[in-house]
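Model it.
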Amino acid sequence: MTGKNYRNDILRELFNIGVGQAAATLSDIIEKKIVLDVPDVKVLNTGRGKVELDRYLKNVAQGAVMVSTISFDRQLEGQVSLIFPATKMHRFIDLCLHENRDETDSLSFTDIDFDTIKEIGNIILNAIIGQLSNTVGIPVEYTLPDVNLLDTARADLFVSDADYRLVLMMYITFNIEGTEIEGAIVMNMTLRSLDEILTTIERIYDGR
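Modeled.
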């Protein structure tokens, strides 16, 4: 079996394994049940990637977003960002920290809030990249996450025409004690890196 849909299905399966491991790690740390799911994965060129991401930012994020980003290199090169609507993050952080603050400003975040998001991003993004790296046997090295609050998010902040050629977009659902947050993971990769991944994945799954 070959084709774009087949490749996307394999990538979704791999990334769900990665986020499943991340969810288990986070559940152990905060002592609450966390469920993470990647319902869809798309491989897009940069132009289409910007259109798709702008649609997400408009329909789901609706304004400010919290973004955790890491860069990776060695044999695979790229950058990956975890994007969540900022207006929903206070409740999520409070659940993680076992707190219940008064909601005054939904876009006001403390240093502890940023550290919490940084740790969450580190666990999720490392699990995703690590699962991909381990599956295809291609080593990567990555930076610590950089966390930012963006009042107005645009796709061109996450999709770079200059450095990368293709975009992997993953929608991610985060559920903790009935609180659900829809987010997105945007991975910019060089064409050579993505070709290596997809070729290796197809060889593995076709049993060759």
